[in-house]
Amino acid sequence: MPICIECRHPVKTLWTKYSGAGDPSSGHNIRLTVCKNCGRFCDKYVEHDFVVLFIDLVLIKPQVYRHLLHNTLMREGDQFDGNVQPSIIRLGTLLLLFDVYLTWARVEKQATPDTPSGSNLGSLAQQPIVLQYLFFLILCTLSTLAFHLSIRFLTSSAYSPLAVLGGGRLARSARPNSVSTALLVSSSTKLFPILMVVWDYDVPAAARSLGWAVVANNVEALAILLDCGYPAALLLAAAGATARWLVARAVLAVVGLDGLLGDGGGGGGGGTAGADEGMALWSLLVYAREWAARLALV
């Protein structure tokens, strides 16, 4: 059932379509529904194009997330809308490919002079370019799956620790597909590295900034979808980032490249696809703890 993106009140319809709506000479003949609870349009984004949606996603506006997650992409019973399911799959594939590109570029930028190949990849740098790409593709795919599956488990499984701590509130939502969709949509800021094709800039610094943006969007999307508040959303994002980092470390350790993880910070160390997001989330948690301590002393 659709909701008002302003006050989250359930509504029957988002717009009313009058006769002759398809006739250019008669205008659109579509009137947006006004919410009886708050008095504003239930969903103004019905008339907006994708450019406006993307800009508001970057600005982390709650209304655009409610429009996408409740009124557009998902249907009752945690089912995908048949018309948009291919678009969601394409978005997930595109984000994965950008993850591969950014991870590979970041490692290549941070060459180590004392290695025989002059690269952090070590012996992997001696392999054909196709094998190198497959390695990063497998690495990013497994780490991304760990990120999604861990959060899906925590929010939708009856065996989730949060089901006990939170009285089963999150587990009762049972919307794993919606959770993955929310994470994909909120990770759209990962597409910004396409600017690297035009402008050359510091890849590690860009990755750290991108990590901050992705974490903030993920937390906002989880808080809106699950209506669980920011502390629980931060906890879920932290659990997903931890699972991603552990899986990436395991994959790199298997091939003897666990040193690529580095410290994930600004010391010039290497990093995997989720290392910078994990460090950004950790910094955010530390900042929140310090802010809460200062507030308690006032």
Instruction: Label the structural class.
Output: mainly alpha
What is the N-to-C succession of helices and strands? EEHHEEHHHHHHH
Strand content: under 5%
Number of separate strands = 4
Radius of gyration: 22 Å
Poorly predicted sequence stretches spanning 5 or more consecutive residues = 263-271, 294-298
Biggest sheet features: 2 strands, antiparallel
Q: Helix count?
A: 9
What's the overall average pLDDT, rounded? 75
Number of domains: 2
Distance between the termini: 44 Å
Helix residue percentage: 40-55%
Shape: globular
**Oligomeric form of this entry?**
single chain
Strand order of the largest sheet: 1-2
Describe this protein with a few key phrases:
4 strands, two-stranded antiparallel ribbon, disordered C terminus, 298 residues, single chain, 54% helix, two-stranded antiparallel sheet, mainly alpha
Write the layout of secondary structure elements.
Layout: E1 15-17, E2 30-32, H1 50-58, H2 62-72, E3 74-75, E4 79-80, H3 85-109, H4 129-156, H5 161-165, H6 176-186, H7 203-226, H8 230-254, H9 275-297
Antiparallel strand pairs: 1-2, 3-4
Protein model, in words:
It is a single chain. The chain is mainly alpha-helical. It folds into two domains: about 1-75, no CATH class; about 85-295, no CATH class. It has nine helices and four strands, in the order ββααββααααααα. The protein has helices spanning about 50-60, 60-70, 85-110, 130-155, 160-165, 175-185, 205-225, 230-255, 275-295; strands at about 15, 30, 75, 80. The protein has a two-stranded antiparallel ribbon with strand order 1-2.
